[in-house]
Specification:
With 324 residues, the protein is α/β, with parallel strands linked by helices. Helix content is 19%, strand content 20%. A ten-stranded parallel beta sheet has the order 1-2-5-6-7-8-9-12-13-14, with no helix packed on it. Strands 3-4 form a two-stranded antiparallel ribbon. A two-stranded antiparallel ribbon has the order 10-11. Helix 7 links the parallel strand 13 and strand 14. Helix 3 packs parallel to helix 4, helix 4 runs parallel beside helix 5 and helix 6 runs parallel beside helix 7. It starts with a helix and ends in a 13-residue tail after the last strand.
Length: 324
């Protein structure tokens, strides 16, 4: 259907494009210079499509458009599509090299695909979904450095992503509201993550937080070592526990943790105490071995707006002691 899709895009101004399981995407036909896509095109969805660098180079190229000036006259200009939403959902063969047109600056504007000298593709991006792809920190960091307006990031099921991508999001995107990092085995919550989250501005607007799990030895209930201050030995302070950051997420509505092997009552109770007036869904998917009836009872007692609660493998919880 590549010829048919190209026929439509060459003749109709399209605001939103959704391609689902399109296996025969011809690079030479799809998204050519005649396609009527400009700065008004809002989103493009690739779902289970074999997207490569050639497709994206052509998609993001400059195209001739007719605009009306303040004097009422019309003129031809070259414009690049500035998408608000880009989805690469379940594009399982998408690699780092394929997405370079999203952030790289070409040496000139007269190349085959007519990309501008400075890539502005990510400048207006508010939603990015790269779930179940082969992208790594290398490409994600390059994209995120140019996506200052990002509001939603979905990195579920990405085996090459590490905590570095998540830390960069917290540091560079003060308005991001939705973070999804489920089933990213190399992206585990650490004490450093809690430190970055506490220092970030986005914690004041964050509504959805999906994480894979907690790194072994981190976010423990043990008191952190005392730190000496000044020359006098008597002056000592106790550092706050890393999980205390969950006391300061005032708008969090949806929390999900895939692997809860190292999740303890202290972390859960901090989360509940800080977000009791906003939490609507809590998912503690598997391996909740360390949780007890105390923290589960605290969830039901505190969270008045709770709609959905999922708990898996909680062998230490006695539901007879929980009053709902």
């Amino acid at each position: 259907l590549s010829d048919g899709i190209s026929f439509i895009l060459d003749r109709c101004y399209v605001l939103n494009i959704v391609l689902i399981n399109v296996q025969s995407m011809m690079e030479s036909v799809l998204f050519d210079l005649k396609s009527k896509m400009n700065h008004l095109t809002q989103s493009i969805h690739f779902i289970k499509c074999p997207v490569n660098r050639q497709h994206l180079s052509r998609l993001f190229q400059l195209r001739k458009c007719i605009i009306t000036t303040k004097n009422g006259t019309t003129k031809h200009v070259l414009q690049q599509p500035l998408f608000n939403h880009i989805y690469f959902t379940n594009c399982q063969q998408l690699k780092d090299l394929d997405v370079t047109p999203m952030y790289e600056n070409s040496s000139n504007s007269t190349t085959e695909h007519r990309r501008p000298t400075r890539s502005l593709i990510c400048s207006e991006l508010t939603t990015l979904n790269v779930s179940n792809t082969l992208l790594s920190d290398t490409s994600m960091i390059s994209i995120l450095n140019k996506s200052s307006k990002l509001r939603e990031l979905n990195c579920n099921h990405m085996k090459n992503i590490t905590i570095n991508t998540l830390l960069l999001v917290l540091r560079t995107n003060p308005w991001i509201k939705i973070l999804k990092f489920m089933n990213c085995e190399k992206c585990l919550v650490t004490n450093q993550f809690c430190k970055f989250l506490m220092a970030s501005e986005c914690r004041n607007v964050l509504t959805t937080l999906w994480l894979h799990g907690i790194q072994r030895g981190h976010l423990s209930e043990e008191e952190l070592p005392r730190k000496k201050v000044g020359k006098k030995v008597g002056k000592k302070v106790i550092l706050p526990l890393p999980q205390s950051v969950f006391l300061h997420l005032p708008f969090l509505k949806h929390f999900k943790l895939c692997s809860c092997e190292y999740l303890n009552d202290c972390t859960v109770m901090n989360l509940v105490n800080g977000c009791s007036h906003t939490l609507e869904t809590i998912t503690l998917k598997t391996k909740c071995y360390q949780l007890t009836s105390k923290s589960i009872h605290h969830i039901f007692f505190k969270c008045a707006k709770l709609i959905q609660f999922d708990l898996g493998h909680a062998t230490g919880v006695s539901f007879e002691k929980i009053k709902i």
